[in-house]
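Notes taken during the Thursday session

The instructor put the following on the board and asked us to keep it in front of us for the whole hour. The protein is Protein-L-isoaspartate O-methyltransferase. We were told not to look anything up and to reason only from what is written here. First, the residues (397 in total):
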Amino acid sequence: MTDLGALRESMVEHVRARGISDAVAEALRAVPRHLFLPETAPEDAYRDEAIVTKRDADGLPISSSSQPTIMALMLDQLGLEPGQRVLEIGAGTGYNAALLACLTGPGGEVVSVDIDPDVVGHARRRLDAAGFPGVRVVCADGAEGFPGRAPYDRVIATVGVWDLAPAWLEQLGPAGRLVVPLDLRGVQRSVAMERAGGHWVSRSVVPCGFMRMRGPFAGPEMTRVLDRGSDLTISLPEEREIGDVLAALDGPSSMLPTGTRADRAELLDGFGLWLAVREPRWCALYETCPGRLPSTPMDLPGFTVTVGIVDRGGLCVLEHGRSGDALAVHAYGSEGPGLAAGLAAHLHDWEAAGRPASEGLRVEAHPAGPGPVPPGAPVLDKRHTRLVLRWPGLFPR
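Then, after some discussion, the predicted structure tokens were revealed:
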């Protein structure tokens, strides 16, 4: 017979190694994750992994139970206190809403909003089964928030968002805090933000990866499965013409040594973000069945992962070098060598800047439109906000 308590405690201890607070650890102990994943074996439900719970007609994931570690980190970013009122954007399985209910105590209130009626129905039933009937689950467009219970002390999105919805900012109380997986040109960072005069400023930034928001507030990011045999998938910050990627990968190629060494964490967190906000032609490629992509220092368990630059005439990707641990750039297609030189230049610029990453990154969200920014600072213009990114020692005021 499966010892559910032991499985849950093992998961909690694994997550605690990331330095989460005692309050969040106790919430993880109190909420039975397996009840929110009834079609998943308990041994799998208590792994520190995201679990896909719904896919679209093309097979792409559209709903999941997020990885417990990133959920815990975001809950610590949120800084919940007993008695607070919380709005959650994206109901998922209902598991995160149950954690929110534990952290706000019997005097608090949790409202979870999701655009998908099936997701809402499942979340409602699972919350009831787990003993959380007080959580309000609403079927609506999360971009509109839920004004009926505003103002909120905290707002958290458990779905990737391209922009900050005006409704969320309006429905937050004066001392409120917002935590969202925010799109930074195709990569996501969980950003905790508070008001600072006429704009919003981050308190903390954590690497993350969430399924994108659906509906009218969805962003322009594009994810396309290129080869179902290897599950090769490309992600771009927006839809554009990229040519025949498969034909390029199957054609002649060359390698450009870079002389730079970096580990997986540095590349996934630091260089991936640096490239995304500086190179308009950047892309991410990944596959679950090895075959198309070269082995890379960014690979994750079960995934071959890399970043690069793609255009209509070719592409290039980061990979292991052939000598030692130095990185190389693999170029494909007629324009591949030129793209490879550009990718190597970005890598060297990132190294010269001190390998900036999420830690220390400051994200400012100003009202949309032109305004003064430090020379060279990345600026990302959205529908409702203009984001300005700063790293310590780079692009000061």
